[in-house]
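Customer ticket, subject: "Can you confirm the structure for Septum formation initiator?"

Message body: Hello, I'm evaluating your service for our small team and ran a test protein. I'd like someone to confirm that this is what the system normally returns, since I don't have a reference to compare against.
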Amino acid sequence: MNNRKKFIIRNKLIIIFFVLFTVYISYTLYNQNIKFDELKKEELFYDNNIKNSNKKIEEINEEIKQSESLDAIEKIAREKLNMVKPNEIIYIIQDSEKKEDNK
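Agent reply: Thanks for trying us out. I re-ran your input and got the following:
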């Protein structure tokens, strides 16, 4: 009888151990799955940021290439700095609203 009780107790301990081990593994896998999903979302966020940044870099590089041409330099000088060529006459057309405001 004594051996039988030891056998039953040992089997119960083994079953309890495996149940606890299974619960621990399940809990760990669940937490890892949640963390994995969070990291995937973060990866998508950063991938989108990288794509947007690369697009901006390409646009800026294109602007730099265009601004190096003489036509672009002349356009900027005329529009922003109000520069004119020698012997060139500039006509400024005022809006009718501005004329009414001046009266």
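A couple of notes from the result: DSSP finds three helices and no strands in the chain. The CA atoms of residues 18 and 24 lie 10 Å apart. Feel free to reply with more questions.
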